Amino acid sequence: MLMKSLESGRCAINRISLYGLLLVVSILMAVNSGYACEKAQGESVNSVYFPPKFDSIDPENDYVFQLLELVLEKSQDKFGKCQARLLDYKLPLKRVELYLEKNAAIQVAAFTVSVKRDERFLPVPVPISKGLMGYRLLMIKQGDAEHFANIQTLNDLSAYTAGQGIGWADADILKRNGLPVITAGSIKTLIDMLAHSRFDYFPRGALQIITELETYREKPVQIEQSLALSYPSMTAFYVNANNTALAERLEYGLNQAVSDGSFDRFFYQHPSSIDALKNINLAQRKILKICNPILPTWVPIEKHEYWLEPWPQRCLDQAELKRKRSKELR
Fold this sequence. Notes:
By secondary structure, the chain is α/β, with parallel strands linked by helices.
C-alpha cells in the first residue's frame, strides 16, 4: 500500500509539473506575441524574423525585406533599435501562414490583403508597394492587337472576354465590374486557351507577365501595348493576431517613411519597382480603372499618398458605402 501511495504521489507530481510547464509555455507565448521586437535565444540584438520568398535568388535584396529594414529604422525613435532578420530556410506560402498564425519562427510576413487573412492575422493598414500589384497588363493572342487599339472605356472592353484562374480574386473583381470572364485551372491551360481564341485577353501582373511569356515563349501570345487594367489591391505587412505592439511599430515606421519621403525614394529606386513600372509604362497606356468590391473595408484607398495614382471617386464612394453598411451590421 505504501509503494502504491508513493507511486500515485509521483504520478500526481509529474502531472502537476507537466501542467505547470505547459502553463508557463502558454504564458510565455502569449507574452512574446505582444513584443514589438525581442532578442531571440542566443542573440545579442533585438530582432524580428521574416520569411524569404520561396523562389527568391537573393532574399536580402528583395523589395519587402529591404522595406522592412527601412520601417524598423524609421520607428527606432519611438520603439528602440530592432534588426530585420531572414529565416534561414524557405517556406511555401501555406507554411508561412501557419507559422505566423502559431507565432512560430517568424513575426512578420507580407501578403495580399483579404478578408480571410484578416480573420487569421493582424494587418498593418498601410500599403507597402503603392498598389502596384493591382495593375494588370493584357496578354493577348498574336495578331489580335488591332481589336484593342480603339478601346477607351470599360464598356468598350466588356465586348471582349477575359481568362482567369478558378477561384482567383481577379476573376470575381472583373465579373463584378461587368467584364465577361472564362475560368480554367492553371496558367498553362489559360495560355493554351488564349492561343486557341477561347477568350480574348489574360490580365496579368507587370512582373508576372514577363516571366510567363518567357516560360511559354513557344506559344503565339504577346503583351497588348496600349491598355492596362488597375484596381485597388493592397500588399501589407501582417503579424500574429495578438502582436499589436509590432503592428503599431510597423504602422508608425511606414507612416514616418511616407511623411519624410524616404518611402517614395526607396520605392522608385528599387530594381523590382523600376522593372514593374517600366513594363506598365503608365505614360503610354490607357489605364482603365475598376473598383474592388471585395477589398476589406479598412483599406485606406482615400489616402492618395499611399498609392501610385488616386482612385476614381466612384471607387471611393463604393468603399465608403461598404464601411457604413459594415458598421450598421456590427
